[in-house]
Design goal:
heterodimer; A: 287 residues; Immunoglobulin-like; 2 domains; nine-stranded mixed β-sheet; 18 strands; elongated; B: 786 residues; five-stranded mixed β-sheet; 47 strands
Amino acid sequence: MSTTDRPFLTIIFALSFILLWSGCENSIDPIADEGENAFAVFGYLDMRVPTQKVRVELLRPTILSDPISLEGVQVSTIDRNNGTFQIWRDSSVVLDDGSAGVVYVAQFRPELGHTYSLLISRNDKLVAEAIAELPIKPAVTVAAAVGDSVNVTQHLTFLELTDQPVALFVLYEVIPPDDSGVDLVRVGYGNPRMATVGGWEFDIDLSTDRFAILNALGLNVGTKDVKLKKVSMEMTLFSKEWSQPEKGENLEHVLGFFASVGVFEHSWTLNSETVTKMGFVDAQQGN
Amino acid sequence: MSFSRLIILGSMLLEIWAITALALQSTVVVAQNTVVSQNAGVAQNTGDPSFFGRVRDAELRTTLPGATVMISQAGKPIKGDITDSNGQFSFIDIDPGTYVVTTSFLGYESKVDTLQIPRKELLDILLQPTRTLLKEVLVETARLDANRFVAGLETVRTEDLTRVPMPDVSYDLAGYLLTLPGVVSTGDRGGQLFIRGGTPTQNLVLVDGMRIFQPFHIVGFYSAFPADIISYADVYAGGFSARYGGRISSVIDIKTINGSKEKLTYSASIAPFLSGFNVSIPIRPGDTSLLISARESIIDRISPSLLGQELPFRFGDRYVKLHSYLNQTSSLTLTALSTSDEGNLETSNDIDDRTYRKSTWKNKAFGGKYQYIPPESAVMTELSVYYSSLKSRYRPTRDELRTADVSDLNLNIGFIYLLGPSQLHFGIFGNTNFFDYKLGSLGTEGESGVTSVGSFFESQFNIGKKIRVEPGVRLEIFSRGLKNTIAPRGRITFLPSGTGSHNQFSLAGGVYHQQIVGLNNEQDVSDVFTIWSASPTNTPVPKAVHLIGGWKGRPRPWLELTLEGYRKNLSNISFPVFGNAINKVAEFSKVDGFAHGVDSKVEVTTQNFFFSLSVSKSKVEYHRSAQRATGVFRPNFGQATTLDENTFNPPHDRREQVNAMVQYRMGASKFSLRWQYGSGLPFTQVNGYYADLSNSVDPKNTDYVTENGTTFVSRSELYGARLPTYHRLDMTVERSFLLPGAELTAMAGVINVYDRNNIFEYNIFTGSRIDQLPIIPSVGIRLDVK
């Protein structure tokens, strides 16, 4: 090697060692920091039942990983409207494939218009939150019934209703001619499809409902002495999360789906003339 | 239109342009002469021009503008000049002494004179017209100027390849490319190159004009063709000229040698990674030669005993080239290349690995080129037709096979007008691609095709002696997406001190379009299985705008410095979108972005010592506006995902890169060492996996809590984390032995000397990691018979 070459070699080896030193880190961290306390929650608050339940899972680091124990995990709700706090109880369930899952349950019936926070804590530290807003109770206007005896209808409008109503029923309490007691007849109207400004509206077909009532009571269409005691409607309301389940805007540090189902009931009084047009005897209180 | 009429039309167009260019050049030369006169005035203070003269046709006695006059002393070039429009040249400030003057011009025999300087008499040089015009033209058009500097261009010669330590005695272009600043590789496995922010599917690789879709073997430091057949390769990291199309990032244009037309030569080499032979046969001595090359790996068969571990890679390539001078004015070249690769790039515990999770691909390419130069004309005509195809197979599970085939048919007719130092190039082309893919359980399959036609024009000419300009434009009509494109391109080189300047400055830029897109699962850079397809309908085709500026300096004869800055603006790039579902065909979004950076290189070359150090700093960033994802394979299939606006760094965004090479020769021995460093590449972390019950949760289904659901993945910030840095040291020792009529070379080396566990792939689904090649000792021998 010539003497002119030596400085070059020195430079090269010096550079190599500097760069070698700087590049020794060789580990990979495939799990994001936020993944360590990431949960998946699937469930909804349901006014129709007295027991609420959600399935909770701690995210697994790989597809092949076994489910991670939820020891130290607490699930609770707080009613933001009245401050009611409730701790949910965990219970193991057997999934369809025989593996184990964890479901948290609580005994309460949520209320319309209330907002509930589902809180997930781990080792006494809040790590995730999901919010469910029960649909609000709409204002209802009932127009006067119109039409003759074969086509009596009544127009209902639900104002300030932002969630789409589903599973709408009109409920009739009737007393058969033999005065055997009060029968409740539910006539389904499916999904009201007429959106209006600030709400929803639909028509009740009272004349047609009469045939459904008589049929339910096992009476023929010519029966005259059936008494109408009460008329009301029941409507199931889905919170907005149901329309776009993939969005998860109500979930914070948690994956999955959390929503609510509300039930709204409203009763009103038909005037006697309308009841007569329907072919019933008016037995409503107050008339 | 008949072919002969086409030639006449092309010639006419070029003649018109030539006249225009000559007029421009003459104007500039006049201006330059004014400057020279002024300089001469200055020079007269210190003395007259050292010598001057003119160059003429020896038969017609007409002057020859554009002839090259070089003076040298003791074999060392001193200065050069180009004759002006009157065929005249002059040299000033030449030290007194004896010099050799070499004069050359296209279509003439070169002439060598010896003279004493200073000389006061005019030197009248007469050049004889050559009888082998075509050969001269071919040499001229392929001329390699060792000193030329063009921003974005690196011309790789065979001697460059020999400096890279490889695990065998055959050198390889891929190994050398990895030493270039701005070139990012996936590493030893997979054979994917990212050049200055461009993805592998945005690189155009040509072997004698044939497009090669997968130009690298499955072991990443081997090209799909041996170094033995390479004459030189122009590697355009950007700013390439108008003759190149169909890709938006870079061009690797490889020219192969012709076989010997004088005598039979052959060579053979044996090494664990790759063994091969190369034979050159003069079919018709003096006129026609046949070159045959074949290589095959054996590493998969010997790695268990040699290394104690499986290296499940098998690859090889075969190349044939027939070249013939049909007569004094025409030549024909027929070329064919086929490659095959197979191996397991993924981790698997399956005992039957040979049929499980295997990637394979096969390139096939063939075609021919006919070159013709009419007598008494300087317009060379080229007609070329090439076909190439790639068949890729990927087996994600034992029972599933995914296939993706693409083929390319390319027709080019080109006219090259040689005008002294100027060159005009006009061409028309047509290109058709066919795609055929079947994605197994993903349920997607299809066939389609796209076509493009167009023309290009480019020229090269000097403005005075300091500026060389290379403007061009490419006009192209696509059958998909954006219908018509006009893509201006150009380069300019500035030599502050004229020919022989120690400093050179260059700018290059242009607009580029790409009608077909290569789509792969870009969850990280190690994904190899690529599905070629047409760019999405009703959207503009992918587009890039390049701007590159550079400087090359040679402050000492042994020291060369290069510095380049670049910016590529990208638009309409198809980029995959991954939702939470696993094993779902990715949707695609349209992203815009940029790549920019600075590449620097230092080279020290002495008689026995070579050292190069290249350092790159770069950034690639994509921006996705709020949009709905589209399915490239099946538009509007299913519910498209709504995407929020996002800015991210794609998986090939390597920010820092260093390559150092040393070679020391001692007699017949050679010691080579290479060290590579690359900062970590981006990847997307996961938050974890969970059972998704979205399809089960229903107000009417109260039993949903016991359903298994579908396994979903929750991903963290898109490409928000980085893989570990990559670095590796390779070294080899070679010694040559001269035998009667042959040369024997023996090699011993070590790849990954300090056994660095460089990551190749981390499988986010299974949590398994696969590293690049471990420390590998290697020996090889090679015999060259000439």
